[in-house]
Amino acid sequence: MEKIAIIGGGNLGSAIARGLVHTKACDPQMIHVTRRRAQLLAPLAGFGVITGSNNLEAVKSAKIVFLAVKPYQMKDLLAEISPAIAGDAVLISLATGIDNKTLLELSGGKNAVFRAMPNTAVAIGQSMTCLASLNATPDQDEKVKALFEQLGTVQFIPEELMAGATVLAACGIAFALRFIRAATQGGIEIGFGSELALKIASQTVKGAAHLLIEGGTHPEAEIDKVTTPRGITISGLNEMEHQGFSSSLIKGLMASYQKIENGSKQQK
Ligand SMILES: NC(=O)C1=CN([C@@H]2O[C@H](COP(=O)(O)OP(=O)(O)OC[C@H]3O[C@@H](n4cnc5c(N)ncnc54)[C@H](O)[C@@H]3O)[C@@H](O)[C@H]2O)C=CC1
Ligand SMILES: O=C(O)[C@@H]1CCC=N1
What we know:
CATH superfamily of the largest domain: NAD(P)-binding Rossmann-like Domain
Strand order of the largest sheet: 3-2-1-4-5-6-7-8
Binding site for NADP(+): 7-12, 68-71
Bound molecules: 1,4-dihydronicotinamide adenine dinucleotide, (2S)-3,4-dihydro-2H-pyrrole-2-carboxylic acid
Number of strands: 8
Protein name: Pyrroline-5-carboxylate reductase
Catalytic activity: L-proline + NADP(+) = (S)-1-pyrroline-5-carboxylate + NADPH + 2 H(+); L-proline + NAD(+) = (S)-1-pyrroline-5-carboxylate + NADH + 2 H(+)
Shape: elongated
CATH architecture of the largest domain: 3-Layer(aba) Sandwich
Structural class: alpha/beta
Number of helices: 11
């Protein structure tokens, strides 16, 4: 089994480590996670994962190196660790807005580089992960795809769509959760206790998603099955649309997307 280094054990880096352990994708002792305040990695250490703050130690002999730091921290990090990374290791960056060409340059040009955009559901093996690679062999592409397949669903996409994938999949978790919270608030106003309202709203969203994923249908086809003519669903749906429901979601997505685009332009 190959050693995996996760540099930057914050929200996403830790979620990936938890996912690798949770899904039994690899032996916890083969995962080495670092962050500056290593004591905050104690929960991962409790699962048997190796933790610390020594990046050079973590990448030594690792064949898969996750770069899970903030975008502005990437340049200094790669300057520090690149000389210690084996030539046949694959680098997987999770940073928003740093393209593969830049990653390849910053890392010295010898490694296969990947941009991966998972989301925090990676911690329970339910991520939607988009991938784009540079300087990778077909075997390396397959290896990284197979790794993420153990953590959810994977799709290679053209690199220019990575910003869009960030918004739809990574930010999307927050957008979907805000819907669930709002539905819960409505349920409480109607009379449910908060825990029960949350349980009903969460399972309802899970069921809706599974209708699409397992049935391969379009949302409107499923909506048609719920909207009884002159019924109550269509009244609620139409009122939501009068209040700008779909429009506000699309505008929110575009505001997030625009922020990535503006940030990328500033970096150039
Ligand atoms: N949170 C999310 O849902 C997603 C985040 N991302 C991307 O993943 C990256 C990480 O995001 P988060 O986990 O949310 O940030 P975070 O701030 O929670 O984690 C970053 C971690 O890196 C550590 N770090 C910084 N410099 C370091 C260094 N030189 N050596 C070792 N560790 C170092 C920090 O101590 C921190 O623990 C970002 O680039 C973000 O754009 C991508 C998809 C989803
Ligand atoms: O909000 C952010 O900037 C990061 C990138 C995608 C999800 N979280």
